[in-house]
Amino acid sequence: MKHKQYNTGIEKDFQRGIIRFTEVKKMMKAEPIEAIRKRFHGEWILVAIDRMDKATTTPLTGRLLAHSPRRHEVYERSRRYHKPALVVYSEDTFPKGFAAAFHGAS
Q1: Which of 16, 37, 43, 67 is 20 to 30 A distant from 95 in Cα terms?
Q2: What CA–CA distance (Å, rounded) separates 105 from 61?
Q3: Do the domain assignments include residue 40?
């Protein structure tokens, strides 16, 4: 079965198994970030940001671009997407061996 190639470069990711065909249609629809996170237990997610809270700079809605249990695959995909995007882990706590660091003006 031939599937449509989108301008987000998902054809190559689909072939490598980073995304599932059933997700392709959902990838093109904007939805709340939290709804996307809830669908992918224990996976890293790349989301194109569609709407952001300007006061807090928190992404509110977006379109799924990629997901994988392997962080490096999602980061590799993010390097090919040159618009505002979010890489986030689906759970509230990171898997063992991962941590987050934040830097900002004080």
Answers
A1: 16
A2: 26
A3: yes
Closest CA to 98 of 66, 75, 76: 75
**Lowest pLDDT segment from 1-5, 7-11, 21-25, 92-96:** 1-5
- Count of the separate structural domains present in the chain: 1
Residue 79 domain flag: yes
In a domain, 71, yes or no: yes
Task: Place 25 in a pLDDT band, splitting at 50, 70 and 90.
Answer: low
d(CA 3, CA 36): 22
Q: Name, in order, each residue with C-beta under 8 angstroms of 90's C-beta and a sequence gap of 6 or more.
A: 37, 38, 39, 40, 41, 42, 43, 44, 45, 67
Residue 24 domain boundaries: 10-89
Cα dihedral 7/9/10/15 (nearest 10):
140
